[in-house]
Q: What sequence folds into this?
């Protein structure tokens, strides 16, 4: 193979390496020159991108857990999920400090379980982030439409044109994310701070207005076998856990920024801890106060619970103005999660698991092709589900959650395997919970995985993910495994992180 030209996405062939049923191409410098990222983020930039990715979960989506299990059931689910994320983030931070590459979850699984494990985990994370972005776009469109309707009497949703909001939002944020990493981190930091401030303002206004009534938390009538605290029974707690995840889903993306952070070994763990602390506080605000203002029965089916909360405690136009600020929280997550899927697809493409053209970065050193392709996939998914007769928000949310729990389970298995096989590997950050913490987080992820399987409401999402995996694994088996590239993630995996070069046996 000749040296690649400017427009050729293939690596120059400087000798192949066959290892464990896959074949690697040794790429020359020109291949990686076209796939460069720029180091621009410190600890607060990382905090911003992590919180931005998640914060929309405080504005929409989480409240479906109350409809599923009642307030008490959802509270228990949320507490279990908090413990899972705290343990998991520490485990992920340890692996990220040892493997400061953009690959994140794919990189960890590749080092622990080989190319097939890396591909399965990377695909799960792609599904998670692409579909999470789509869900946030969906809810953002709902919020935007409600605000515009209240202020100006114009509704695209009423005209059957909800998809126009999706086009507008995707276009704006693809351009924003493609404009440069420094812009992405700065924007994420600003909107994260504003979003947290809006949630704190909601808490202050709700408490000062006298609208908070804790009795409303338990206004769902108990079903057979239920109680006031658990109106839908103990079993419903398991079904509520995916909704509780929505308060934290995405904070685990921080390792994807490793090659754009100034000091990833130190700053990713610090940003992960700060981000979790922030999200625990904001999650507590909405879980306690939003249903205490509206009532659990009313909030369970709301498409914009925080907007409804503002409406309940403020005059009409003032509520709409403040809710416009609340929309910022949703837009923050579009930014943060779109950043994540762009880097996830970039790393898998750079290593040859996905088409190599997706990892080209261009003059601004951002994976703009991956960003665009992910946006098209997300938009098409929303359109097919919404106009195929289902509520796009819930179905696509379930697809995202299932992709997430697959990724979580795989990462915790990877952590345990790497600790056992390579105890001497350099780990600048060490999880205080160690292997027991990773096992706990993995068991909780497995429980959610089983809960999703057992709930008939998730069947469309499960079928979708199974089909995606069947297609993805088939393509990888036939083509992808023969065209891998010795990217940084693959180099580390082949050496175990313990030697200077890749192993050859």
A:
């Amino acid at each position: 193979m000749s040296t690649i030209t400017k427009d050729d996405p293939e690596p120059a062939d400087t000798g192949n390496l066959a290892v464990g049923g896959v074949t690697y191409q040794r790429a020359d410098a020109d291949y990686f020159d076209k796939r460069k990222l720029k180091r621009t983020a410190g600890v607060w930039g990382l905090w911003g991108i992590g919180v931005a990715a998640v914060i929309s979960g405080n504005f929409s989506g989480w409240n479906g857990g109350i409809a599923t299990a009642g307030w008490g059931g959802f509270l228990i689910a949320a507490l279990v999920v908090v413990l899972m994320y705290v343990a998991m983030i520490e485990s992920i931070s340890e692996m990220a400090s040892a493997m400061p590459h953009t690959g994140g979850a794919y990189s960890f699984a590749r080092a622990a379980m080989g190319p097939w494990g890396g591909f399965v985990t990377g695909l799960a994370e792609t599904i998670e982030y692409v579909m999470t972005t789509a869900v946030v776009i969906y809810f953002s469109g709902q919020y935007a439409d409600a605000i515009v309707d209240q202020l100006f009497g114009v509704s695209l949703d009423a005209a059957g044109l909800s998809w126009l909001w999706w086009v507008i939002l995707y276009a704006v944020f693809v351009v924003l994310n493609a404009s440069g990493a420094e812009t992405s981190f700065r924007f994420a930091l600003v909107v994260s701070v504003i979003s947290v401030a809006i949630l704190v303002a909601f808490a202050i206004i709700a408490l000062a207005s006298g609208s908070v009534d804790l009795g409303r938390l338990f206004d769902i009538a108990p079903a057979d076998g239920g109680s006031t605290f658990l109106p839908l029974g103990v079993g419903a707690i398991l079904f509520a856990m995916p909704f509780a995840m929505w308060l934290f889903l995405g904070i685990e993306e921080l390792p994807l920024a490793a090659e754009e952070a100034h000091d990833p070994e130190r700053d990713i763990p610090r940003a992960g801890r700060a981000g979790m602390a922030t999200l625990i506080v904001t999650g507590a605000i909405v879980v306690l106060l939003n249903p205490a203002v509206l009532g659990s029965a009313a909030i369970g089916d709301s498409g914009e619970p925080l907007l409804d909360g503002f409406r309940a405690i403020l005059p009409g136009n003032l509520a709409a103005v403040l809710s416009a600020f609340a929309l910022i929280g949703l837009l923050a997550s579009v930014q943060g999660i779109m950043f994540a899927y762009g880097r996830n697809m970039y790393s898998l493409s750079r290593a040859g698991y996905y088409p190599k053209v997706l990892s080209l970065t261009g003059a601004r050193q951002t994976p703009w092709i991956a960003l665009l392709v992910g946006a098209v996939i997300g938009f098409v998914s929303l359109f097919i589900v919404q106009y195929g007769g289902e509520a796009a928000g819930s179905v696509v949310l379930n697809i995202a959650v299932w992709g997430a729990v697959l990724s979580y389970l795989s990462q915790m298995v990877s952590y345990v395997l790497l600790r056992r096989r390579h105890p001497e590997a350099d780990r600048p950050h060490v999880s205080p919970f160690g292997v027991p913490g990773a096992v706990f987080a993995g068991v909780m992820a497995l429980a959610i995985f089983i809960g999703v399987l057992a709930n008939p409401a998730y069947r469309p999402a499960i079928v979708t993910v199974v089909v995606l995996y069947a297609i993805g694994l088939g393509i990888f088996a036939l083509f992808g495994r023969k065209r891998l590239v010795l990217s940084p993630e693959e180099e580390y995996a082949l050496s175990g992180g313990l030697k200077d070069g890749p192993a050859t046996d």
About this structure: The CA atoms of residues 409 and 443 lie 8 Å apart.
